[in-house]
Amino acid sequence: MSKFDQFNVFSTNYKTVEVGIPVDILIPRGLSPGTYPSIVRFHGGGYTHNIDILMKDVSESHYFLPDYRFIPESTGLDILDGLDDLWTWLHTEMPNSLEWATTTTISANSGQLMTVGDSAGWLSVDFAMGHAAETRACIGEFPSFDPQSPGFTKPEPPNSNPNGSQYPESTIDNHLAKCTTGSVVASDPTLSRFPIIGAMMEHGRFLDYFGRATKLLPLERLNAGDKTLLLFIIHGLQDSVVPVEGSEKFVQKVLEQDLKTKVQLSLYPGDHGLDIPFNLDHPWLADGLKLVIPSWLG
């Protein structure tokens, strides 16, 4: 059974830059006419490809699953620029898209919005921080809050892999040599691009392509005075891709800003993704969901 079987799925573009940047609209099957809350869900994939995971058992709400531009063809600032356009689309063209997609009077309450993101969970937090007054709650799953840490910026020791380099540094350069100037990629569900992010991480070159602007560095944004909102962060203690220390630093800094900020950091045994089913009744999620769900639906 497909994870999308319980939904009617429609696709449209929320932005065009050389190519259309799509957003999938997921509407639960059998939904009665009415106005419903919304979830904007950002897929993972190391900013280079697509990996979609859906929280299960979130009924009677619309899902919006946007794609976004990938590195190294684009930069982190390009990605965030696209998210600004996604916000505009949600508040201007989205109602017409829903009307086109459904034959009943089903609409989305743009004021009842929660953001969710896995792996690229930072995009969920960035999107919510940029629109904190209009976003009810935010969930970030194993997000990359500290891309300036050694795991992103330092090459792995030469002898760390007994079989030699898993992803040669030339992987990135060979890929870029095949790209035309100004080319844009925003979708690749085949995982064929995974070696690109693998090489960036293995050789400490992630920020060379993602960028180092303050807007791209969550901890620096907090230092600059940016505020967050009601937030639930999930991270695996043995995460070998995005170190858990980044989430710990981010939450510590959020609370240093304002002890009244409602934030839940849930740390559990497991690697990147935790390999757990994201059902709403899962005990590992209980405390965080008790925080965000009432605010989202209230």
UniProtKB/TrEMBL annotation:
Compositional bias annotation for Polar residues: 161-171
Residue ranges of the region described as Disordered: 146-171
Lineage: Eukaryota, Fungi, Dikarya, Ascomycota, Pezizomycotina
Protein name stated in the entry: Uncharacterized protein
Originating species: Aspergillus ruber (strain CBS 135680)
Alphabetized InterPro entries for the sequence: AB_hydrolase_fold
